[in-house]
Automatic annotation (TrEMBL):
UniProt KW Isomerase keyword: no
Keywords assigned: Methyltransferase, Transferase
PANTHER family attached to this UniProt entry: TRANS-ACONITATE 2-METHYLTRANSFERASE-RELATED
InterPro entries reported for this sequence: Methyltransf_25, SAM-dependent_MTases_sf
Name of the protein this chain belongs to: Methyltransferase domain-containing protein
Start and end residues of each Methyltransferase domain: 55-153
Coiled coil residues, start to end: none
């Protein structure tokens, strides 16, 4: 990142840090999290080896590192994030979880990942939501993640969908941001966030292939229900979202629809989020 952009990103997450985990209170993001965990359970977790080491690249407050370590008591992890304000909350989760040496937390720029990771290697790397959108050079960061993955290791990405960014900004009356997303492949969802890279499934698959990480799964979620403006804020629910999720019964039926559609590759372009799993090729056996 350039210094000015790095400063802008750090300041953005400084403002967000203390309330960031309140996203759990919003019905739309609860559904999104359930879909992400379902996708992890179907496509990722069965392929994680025993005593695996996890890299959470841009892990922030540690929501997903914490969930993975609770689910897999044999796993250890490195949470790597630019923002000290965010990782303070990850440290608190680590203390509550009693993770001790199972979890290391390092502050730094993903542009320096290989240097900061030292000789550590990982069996799985995750980078969820807008993290790669905020880096200066996406391909360089992907190459660095590939370099620290063990052969056969997995990279799991959740990223902002360029097509949804166009739709969302038109829906909320931000035509200039829709133009930026459509023409420049950069944009934002609120005026207070830094502009970020936006991705299409094809662009992402190409970048991963170039980084030596062939794609195994490319899809998106949620695909049937989209967020409104209020879902871009720390708290609150947009009227349309509230109407759709009228009660628990409605929520359960919509979740069943989303679960049924989850993983279909033709729906990647419709997802609010893109979900991609890439796997580093295993080492070829030595010839005699």
């Amino acid at each position: 990142m350039t210094l000015s952009h790095t400063t802008e990103v750090i300041e953005y997450f400084r403002r967000k840090a203390d309330g960031y985990d309140r996203v759990d209170e919003q019905v739309y993001w609860r559904l999104s999290d359930e879909l992400l965990w379902e996708a992890m359970s179907r496509y990722v977790i069965p392929h994680i080896p025993d005593k695996a080491v996890l890299l959470d690249a841009g892990g922030g407050t540690g929501r997903w590192t914490d969930r993975m370590l609770r689910h897999r008591p044999d796993m250890s992890a490195l949470l790597f994030d630019l923002s000290e304000h965010m990782t303070r909350h990850a440290e608190a989760k680590a203390e509550r979880g009693g993770y001790g040496e199972r979890l290391s937390i390092v502050n730094g720029d993903l542009a320096d990942l290989v240097e900061k990771a030292g000789d550590r290697k990982f069996d799985i790397a995750i980078s969820f939501h807008n993290v790669l959108g905020f880096v200066r050079d996406v391909r360089s960061v992907l190459q660095q993640i590939a370099a620290v993955l063990n052969p056969g290791g997995q990279l799991v990405l959740v990223l902002p969908n360029r097509y949804h960014a166009v739709f969302f900004n038109l829906l909320t009356g931000s035509v200039s941001e829709a133009e930026s997303a459509a023409f420049d492949r950069r944009g934002r969802f609120t005026s207070d966030m830094p502009a970020m890279h936006l991705f299409t499934p094809a662009e992402l698959v190409g970048a991963l292939n170039e980084s030596g990480l062939p794609v195994a799964i490319s899809t998106g979620f949620p695909v049937a229900v989209y967020p409104g403006f209020q879902e871009t804020q720390i708290a609150g629910t947009s009227g349309l979202v509230s109407d759709v999720f009228a009660d628990q019964s409605a929520y359960d039926r919509i979740k069943a629809i989303e679960f049924r559609l989850l993983g279909e590759p033709g729906l990647a372009e419709r997802g609010n989020n893109l979900f991609v799993v890439a796997r580093k090729p295993p080492e070829s056996p030595a010839r005699s």
